[in-house]
Amino acid sequence: MTDWQEELDKYLSIVERHTTDSLLRIQNAFKHTNRTLEEKATFRNHFLNSTRNRVSEACDRYELTRNVQHRPRSPNNRSTSIGHDRDQSFTSDQRSCSSLSSNNDQFELEQQNKLAHDITICGVPLSTKHEKLRKMFAQLCKKVGVNIQSDEITKIFRSNPKTVIVVQFRSERNKEFFMKMCRKKSLWTNDMMHDEEPRRIYIDYQMTTFYRNMCKIARHARQQNLIHSHDISKQGLMIKLTPRSSELTFLSPKQLHGYLNKLRQAKRRRQAMSSDTE
Asked: What H or E segment, with its residue span, contains residue 116?
């Protein structure tokens, strides 16, 4: 038996074992619920269709990512990039456009990386002309359970619009820890200042307009269940298709749109196949 046949046989053995175990548990669940005979009779088709669709989805993801070109990796760069894929049959004009696009993408990445230590606090109204932003931020840190010393903050100021406060950390590690703790709580204006009518405040990474637009595209894809998560890194915008999948890195909205459109097409194909078998 060849290597690929052995691997396929291992895969099918695992599927068979898990299928048997799952069906036994499902059968026991049926016994303890008021399922009708008709529901039990149609379950077999539902089980097979769901299994086939999930395997088909995994195959589609593999097809979309197998030709992704890996950029040279540094010890801190473990993500896969599709930001610099090249078609070797480019004409000279196409190469010029591609080079221009690549240079612009790199410039935008450099601009974003200049904000790597910055966060924004949005929705905080101007209290007084002589407000003490560092004191307000210290109060917020206490609320989320983070001990950030004053000298760990290099800058703190109001931006445009005036309801936005920008905080620049000396350490990226402290910034990430602060963000992690903030995500666990719903925060309000009275968590950092006196406010008789508390309003929600929102904390996010400081981003350029270019990367804010990319995050908006990725956020919409999450709402459509096309991807699992997205984040900003020093390599670009990273997305994960599943919790355990490798990270894919994008450097421009065009690249991200192209990839997401392929995911949508694959999803429509699976839905069409599912409709044909019902």
From this structure: none
